[in-house]
Amino acid sequence: MRTKETEPAPRVQSVDRAMRILFAVAQSKDGLKAAEVVAATGLPRQASYHLLHTLVATGILTRSGPGKYVLGLRVGTLIEGFKRQLAPPEHLAPVVRRIAEETGETAYASGWWDGEIVTLVTARGTNSVQAAEVSHGTYFDAHARASGKLLLAYSTEQLRTDYLSSHRLNARTKNTITTLARLYEDFERIRQQGYATDLEEFSNGLCCLAVGIGGGAQPFALTVSAPTERFEQRFDSYLSMMKRIAGELS
């Protein structure tokens, strides 16, 4: 028997359906035609058409090219609001800038936020050739990121299980770990050595090193990211510097 505690919160069907359409369009490469929206969401054709027209009227979607629906300009307001409201602890930004300055590489900090592993602060380095920056608010494919693997390795068993049971282990590159068995082996190695690496697992030609700060079951992860050749040449110095900074913050 359901109680007030176990009964699911009421949901407005039209809003739920509109969000499914919005996510389907957002996750597509270059927009979706109406029939593709129906196929992607599994929603009734007539309901999908009505909702598409409503989303266009509100500016959340717009028509583009050969009958395709793409994200509208008003989505930009949502994106900017999300980034503005995703406020990291004040002590993280100076630390990330320091890592970028000392290494010359792209640096960022990540943490748990609403059940996801999210990039909270980023800073570009000074080297002429830089790794592609991980945007503020990035949360997908944590299993392929050094920061994500580190935070999962040190999380509680329940949090780790909940996350991995609700996220696919997508193969971003040929080096991406895509099985739970191998991922758990990596978690054990991370806990033993005290740091995590991403060796072209998230992006070809790019490697990352992450260390934890903050302690407890949900620390923050500090990451330095560099082109593969430079990462391999300077790994020892990166690791020494990252451990030193993490130690100063403990």
UniProtKB/TrEMBL annotation:
Domain HTH iclR-type as annotated: residue spans: 12-73
GO molecular function: DNA binding; DNA-binding transcription factor activity
Domain IclR-ED: 74-250
Keywords: DNA-binding, Transcription, Transcription regulation
Signal sequence coordinates: none
Residue stretches in coiled coil: none
GO biological process: negative regulation of DNA-templated transcription
Protein name in UniProt: IclR family transcriptional regulator
Taxonomic lineage: Bacteria, Pseudomonadati, Pseudomonadota, Alphaproteobacteria, Rhodospirillales
